[in-house]
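Discussion board: Methods & Data

I've been asked by a reviewer to show the raw model output for two of the constructs in my manuscript, not just the figures. I'm not sure how much to include, so I'm pasting the format here to get opinions. Each protein appears as its amino acid sequence followed by a line of discrete structure tokens. Is this the kind of thing reviewers expect to see in a supplement, or should I convert it first? Here is construct A:
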Amino acid sequence: MNQDLKALLQNQEEQLLRPEIRTSKEALNQLLAADFFEFGSSGRVFRGEEIDEKGIGAVDMQLSDFEIKSLAPDVVLATYRIFNVEQKQSSLRSSIWKFQNNRWQLVFHQGTKTI
């Protein structure tokens, strides 16, 4: 797998953790596909159209163990770990990125809490 693509997608995942991105509907709309949806680690299902002007809220999280796997020429699965500093809780994450609209956009995300 292309290391440049891996670095790009890891950077985009890390952007999604930054407070200034998470609290900006405009910035989120650049990274998230129009039909984005998520199965959150809370068990909640979240859809992109639910994002309001305040975004999705700021949370202090740290990303590690980032890997990608090609699913199709324009579709990539990303897997990684997140540590939520405030909750002192780790989770496993998976994201599906698709190249569309001349950029990589997140179409699906899932978080699963670890023990």
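Construct B, same format:
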Amino acid sequence: MTNDTTRRALLAAALAAGTAGLARSEAAALLDTFAPLSGDAWDAADRSLSETVESPHGDASVRVDDRGVPHVEADDEAAAYFAVGYLQAFHRLFSMDLQRRVMRGRLSEVVGAATVESDEFNVAMGFTAAAEATWDLVSETAAGPLIEAYAAGVNAAMEAETLPIEFELLGYEPAPWTPVDTLLMEKQISWTLTGSFAGLRRALVADRLGEERAAELFPRRMDHDAPILDGDEERLGGAGRRERRRTGWRDRAAANRTEPIDPELTDWLSGFESPTGVGSNSWVVAGEHTASGTPTVAYDPHLSLTVPPLWYEQRVETPERSVRGATFPGVPFVIAGASDRATWSFTNVGADVLDCYRYEVDEAGERYRYEGEWREFETETREIPVDGGEDRTLEVRRTVHGPFIEREGRHVGVAWTGHSATRTTLAIDELGRADGFDDALAAIRKFDLPTQNLVYADADGRTMYYATGQLPIRRIDGEVVAGDRVFDGSAGEGEWEGFEPFGRSSWTGFVPFEEKPHAIDPDVLSTANQHVTDDPTHYVGVDYAPPYRGARIAERLDAAVAGGDPIDPAFHRELQRDVRDGRADQLVPDLVAAVEEEGAENASGSAASERIREAVATLDAWDRRMAADSRGALLFDRWLDRFRELVFEPAFDDVDLGEAYYPNDWVLATLPPDDPLFADRSREEAMTAALSAALDEIDEAGWATYGDRNTTAAIAHPLGGEAPFLNYETLPADGSPATVMNYRFDDAVGSSWRMVVRPGEDATAVIPGGNSGDYFSEHYDDQLRAWLANDQKPMSLAPDGEGGETVSFRGESS
């Protein structure tokens, strides 16, 4: 570790100066020039895997194929996962270390004071303690020794191989990897998908706008006919729809008004949630409708798009498993992929698994009231190292429910299912070894967090959907209530029976596995983060995606099945490329009519009016596809942003709520013309004014088509601002937040992995960039253009192509 900030600043400035878009050879020359400053940076430009590695776990062989995907084969599971750890560390060590630093609250130790608030939040939330509790559980299972072997492989690579260039740019060396770090990655993934303070925001909105108005603008369930389940699926314990047990949570929850937590604390906490719009697509078609007679699963998770990508592709072959697919660096097991007999995928449910609590605290701030008694906080003092600045001291406090988050005299208690020991790593390990449907079903019983829509198919023709993860049941005075509110922690409201923060939970007060939404052997089923069912037995949540992607996928699948022609994998890959935007279908006809009506009233023929008429003519003729080469897509994209602002900004500004609180686009599109938001300016006038503002923006920026704005420039390396050559090239991109081919330029979110699998047969996949995080590797960005076109490569059970690096891992007896 070095605190030589001057040296690091000089090196970063030198690398940043004029290096954007340099060829790798030019970047290497630049590094050579600054070798006296950068120490080992030049060595990072010529990294290559060792051909032979000693392994304490026995022999394994590796071949890295022509797309940078490692194929690991071993007779012993531990030997295989030692090799996996070694390979992930070689290809993605900086990503791994960066994520664990974020979750441990140790980012400021290497980047300085700019990230202190992030560190304070992550330390206060206790993610490391939750990972330690999880490792304590997992270490006692068959997965424990494999994770230990994986960690040993990571550390062996740190010792034997040249570190990636990012470590020299920041001037530090990574600490050894531990099994707890791997379980910390489980917590990081889970937080990304379920860590939501929406309950705090809902309470604030209801307080500012009124309960009735908030319910109109933020409905618990959007009124559409495209849920995941329609109620006729075969369920565990019998066919058909079971009669719903009347819990009554809907009516009582609506009547429970919640006082908001301080708005500044609410906004601060909201800054540590997932990027807006994180979601995914998945669908399954049973064998009776496919060309091969085998079920087919298609999948693309929508997560943050980064350099290198979030996912890492690998294949592992042992006597116990034959599995290939994608995992997150730092996690040994394939998370989404295929075995030689089955395939599985996960999309986010949108379940509510985080609750917030208010407490009565004594004047000294040392105790909190709970069920009529004063209790001492559990406290721990933690140091947050700050490179180039003064280290911070943070007193971490907890209640019976979990972390107690404090900031500038304000506080809130938090309960999150991820704070307990969770078994998700065991479920993922067992899915990779499952020998058929029953094994897979047994495995997903252990999938505690994140709450996910599992879609599964196997070579026996079985298919399955299951909403996985632990779903809390809350009660107030014995009555079941929803969780989208702030609870009175001092009164013991909304507590989760069987939940032990930072320990092992029994989960006794949670929704039983058999009662979670599911479907056994569905013919055709798709998920796109919309609400699971119109009439759930239990409260699941309220934070669902608008139905645009889900409705479009279901429409096309239904049409394909009704057509009677067998569906082949090419159809699924083409559907993954679908860029029809349902928002345009709702809004463009009304926009055209609004402009035509205004034109009939105002026949001035001014240049401004002519410009708007030309734009409307383009939109009217537009095919509603968010294609990079489309002028209509550009006009709609910029118009929609301006229309959203004009509709929501005045009313929300009046109550001091920013754009992060605006309702979603489904609500915007379905607002009636007589809604109070149109009291000062009619819906038609707002639409026309928004188009004029959009054209001003387009003209000023000099854009001609959608791809001029919607580009891969949003996909950035964490150090890309200081060393721009680490970023990918800028290319035009198709897709929008509402299209099946999902791309969200403003949030750098999109399809982070795509695959199409016929279990037991062929599989294809593509990653947004490259499988290697080594800038000087040919596999750093070799799939970027293929990803943009969804030109998937084989995801095979054997290495693709000829040549490639090979590594021999040799045990002590070899």
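Answer (T.O., handling editor elsewhere):
This is acceptable in a supplement if you add a one-line summary per construct. For B, something like: Residues 1-27, 29-38, 237-255 have pLDDT under 50 and may be disordered.
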